[in-house]
Specification:
Layout (H helix, E strand, L loop, with lengths): L9 H12 L1 H12 L3 H6 L7 H15 L4 H5 L1 E4 L2 E4 L12 H10 L5 E5 L5 H9 L4 E6 L2 H13 L5 E4 L12 E6 L19 H4 L7 H13 E10 L5 H10 L3 E7 L5 E7 L3
Parallel strand pairs: 3-4, 3-6, 4-5, 6-7
Antiparallel strand pairs: 1-2, 7-9, 8-9
The structure holds glutamine (GLN).
Length: 276
């Protein structure tokens, strides 16, 4: 007889944690602790796990149960097929933001100069550069801590990007123009109840502490001055902001203004073009 109990196999640990946080997150966390891909856990589910790993895993599961998002526990999040380092200084990349990538790639000429403002983890700027290596990409953020994360991601993923610190257009020279400008700014209304469920993420990356439209207004109004003729602006926004943002675009002189839905069928981004 052995003193090992079934509690200590991968299978037992996973089934215990699945009851608390679900199988998907349980396997991400156990894979992280064991430094193995999730497929390994399935193929080796009768393997005995050492005590230190068990303690670490149980601690992570409990912290997740308290509400900490999994990417902050593992320090990474997948976006557009690549892993990005995330810390509590940056928003966790969302699948919905992949829609912005798809649309930006559609309207970006091969050797274009792209500006991304409020880059956070850098996921948008880095992905655009890697999907289209001929681009010249500038990425900005007001937060030096966020910029440090973005710079680390650009380095790790070998994306050559110019970074600049500052609030929206203040980060770039006044006379500089781009072919494409994009941003996923803070757009949640200060009173939106969703904010209460997002306490682990930097609040200034989620909300403008106003009506949800103040950053979008600044970005849209300032864009014509920084866009070449024929250039595009794309901004992510809330599910209920499509009409208001299209109006901002039209008022600022944009043509071909359209709103695109995310994978959940919600309005998620608006784009428009400065007439050539
Ligand atoms: N889409 C995010 C959310 O609703 C918000 C991102 C943002 O404010 N830019 O959780």
């Amino acid at each position: 007889m052995t003193t090992e109990t079934s509690q200590k196999t991968i299978k037992a640990l996973l089934s215990h944690a699945t009851a608390k946080i679900g199988r998907f997150e349980a396997s991400i966390l156990l894979g992280h602790v064991l430094q193995k891909p999730r497929e390994y856990l399935i193929a080796h589910d009768d393997e005995i796990v050492n005590d230190l790993a068990i303690t670490t895993f149980n601690m992570l599961v409990d912290t997740r149960l308290e509400g900490m998002p999994v990417p902050y526990l593992t320090g990474r999040q997948e976006f557009f097929g690549r892993y990005f380092t995330v810390t509590s200084d940056v928003l966790i990349p969302r699948p919905d933001t992949e829609v912005l990538i798809e649309q930006a790639l559609l309207v970006t000429p091969p050797r274009a100069h792209v500006l991304e403002m409020g880059t956070g983890s850098g996921c948008i700027a880095v992905t655009l550069k890697l999907q289209n290596p001929g681009l010249t990409v500038t990425a900005t953020d007001r937060s030096p801590d966020a910029l440090a994360v973005a710079q680390a991601n650009a380095k790790d993923l070998a994306a050559d990007i110019t970074f600049a610190q500052g609030s929206w257009y203040e980060a770039v020279p006044e006379e500089q123009t781009f072919d494409v400008i994009c941003s996923n700014p803070p757009y949640i209304h200060r009173n939106d109840h969703h904010l209460k469920g997002l306490v682990y993420e930097p609040q200034e990356a989620l909300t403008d502490f106003e009506d949800g439209l103040s950053c979008l207004r600044e970005i849209v109004r300032g864009a014509p001055k920084h866009l070449k003729l024929g250039g595009w602006l794309l901004v992510e926004h809330g599910y209920d902001q499509g009409q208001a943002v299209r109006q901002l675009f039209t008022d600022a002189g944009f043509a071909a203004v359209r709103t695109v839905k995310d994978y959940g069928d919600n309005d998620r981004l608006t784009m428009g073009r400065i007439p050539a």
